[in-house]
């Protein structure tokens, strides 16, 4: 499995790189703040593979990276995705390091 840290993601977003960013937190978590406009809660991910692109990097994140690590592993194993990354430390780490 591959991961990306918050500094790398910040650079990709700043450079407007062609990536797909998916927030897998619950709607109530997503409403408190998010890094993207795409929210697919964890329990819907396996049934939503048609919403995950295969032709560019896809970065999946949750609050701490526990859920995103697990779902990245499951998607790679079951659906043979090769372009998935999880955000190491998740949304919490990204926000904590926002000013670094």
Helix content range: 25-40%
The largest sheet, given as strand count, sense and whether it forms a barrel, is: 4 strands, parallel
Note the gap between the termini.
26 Å
Assembly type? single chain
CATH superfamily: Rhodanese-like domain
**Unreliable runs, pLDDT <50, ≥5 residues?**
none
How are strands sequenced across the largest beta sheet? 1-4-3-2
**How would you state the average pLDDT, rounded?**
96
SSE order in H/E notation?
EHEHHEHEH
Strand content: 15-25%
Structural class from helices and strands?
alpha/beta
- What is the number of beta strands? 4
Helical segment count: 5
Q: Rounded to an integer, what's the Rg over CA atoms?
A: 12 Å
CATH C-level category: Alpha Beta
Number of domains: 1
CATH topology: Oxidized Rhodanese, domain 1
Overall body shape: globular
CATH architecture annotation: 3-Layer(aba) Sandwich
Topology (SSEs and partners):
Elements: E1 2-4, H1 6-14, E2 20-23, H2 27-31, H3 42-45, E3 58-61, H4 66-79, E4 84-87, H5 90-96
Parallel strand pairs: 1-4, 2-3, 3-4
Provide tags for this entry.
Oxidized Rhodanese, domain 1, 100 residues, 5 helices, 4 strands, alpha/beta, four-stranded parallel β-sheet
